[in-house]
Known about the structure:
The complex is a heterodimer.
Chain A: E1 9-11, H1 23-35, E2 43-48, E3 62-66, E4 78-83, E5 86-92, E6 103-104, E7 120-124, H2 133-149, H3 151-180
Parallel strand pairs in A: 1-2
Antiparallel strand pairs in A: 2-3, 3-7, 4-5, 4-7, 5-6
Chain B: E1 6-12, E2 15-21, H1 24-33, E3 45-51, E4 63-67, E5 70-75, E6 78-83, E7 88-93, H2 97-114, E8 118-127, E9 130-135, H3 142-147, E10 154-157, E11 160-166, E12 169-173, E13 189-200, E14 205-208, H4 211-221, E15 222-223, H5 229-245, E16 248-253, H6 259-276
Amino acid sequence: MQIQPENFLTVEDIANTPRSNGSAVRSALLAEVLRGSGHVRRDVRLRVHGESMLPALWPGDVVEIASCSLEDLRPGEIVLALREDRLFLHRLIAPCTPDGFRLRGDSMPGYDPQYPPEALLGRLVPSVRHGRGRSSAVLSRALGMLFCYSAAARRLALKLHGWRAVSAGAARNQFRNSETI
Amino acid sequence: MAASRKVACVEIGGIPIALSTCDEGFLDLLRRRYDGFLSSSAPEFELEFYVTPRGSDSDDDVRVRRDHNEWILERGDFHARWDPGTRRGKVWQNANPYSLDSVLRILHSLILAERDGFLLHAASAICDRSAYLFSGVSGAGKTTMTRLAPVHVTLLTDEISYLRPSAGGYAAFGTPFAGELARAGENCTAPVAALFFLEKGPENRVDEMSQAEAVRRLMRNILFFAEDKPLVERLLATACDFVARVPIRRLTFYPDARVWEEVHNFASSFHEVAEHA
């Protein structure tokens, strides 16, 4: 059986989230897939856990990550990095330097510690859903700050998102059922 | 009047399955083939066998797919339907023991996937109350390792290892599924101490391997046939957990008895590290 990494790997981006024994192994596997691509772009799909990138990314979102080099990155992009066997999908906040790069979750109060260059795994492939360009990054960052400092706003947003996800799922099922009748 | 069904309960990996048939000859075959694994436990699952003059083409690709609530298992030499909800199934096959083995392996692979265990293309043996696994493609040396084993080593299998999660790690169980050795394993179990991926070479050597490589090689050697995304996803999670819990090394070996000294040395050094940790 050959591994198909897409769909099976998850991003755990909250530092104190309890982790299963295998999650570090999954992270290593993903890192190998993305780093092993050389100059050939390789894409993987990941399911997002955690809330540190609200409202750009929501728990349960499936995102596409493409391998890239430091030179490819521009501030405002969402970047996948590996630190201490853990995956982080956060926004690049400044141009990369030879010493590494700095990331921050949109709804996190502070920057992540500096990442060394080798921590880079890839970047988010933008979609309509996740917004494109600098304006959407600024808007997400502004709303993220609201969610960062207002637990009530965060809870409400997550609840609304949960309802929306459930109703979207129900609509999809209804469509499938009508197809099979 | 329908002939009465005779039952043999076969327990592999601690999972008793009642195998029933109306065919006396087939029942006799069942009992002889799984002699060391017959059990008086209450069966968890039931399989009804119908001996038919089906083709004997076991070279066809096996297909395992879902059809509503049932699994369909198909190959040239058998057809089976299995309902995990009722824990019952029916098998139509000829009286070939290899077809019987194949059906049981597939069934166990499905049951194990739901219980975070798996079947691995590997020889396994118990040495000093710990199980060691030797995995690799055909020709890598699985049977050779079992043939070279010292007398105090208990053979669990030379072909298909049976692995289930246990307290603090994984346990290996003996299986009746034999390879070139043509000998069933002992019906016993032990905690897994290490998995070695075999490679033949001019000398004996144990090397580290990255976790990512270990997962990739492990997944290549897991027996799983079902076309079912959630189960495959779960199997990958199990494989990652296994790699996180069990020491995995590359064992390059020259096929003589000294390779077991290498295994023993590795086991001793690993126990010392664990005790000092």
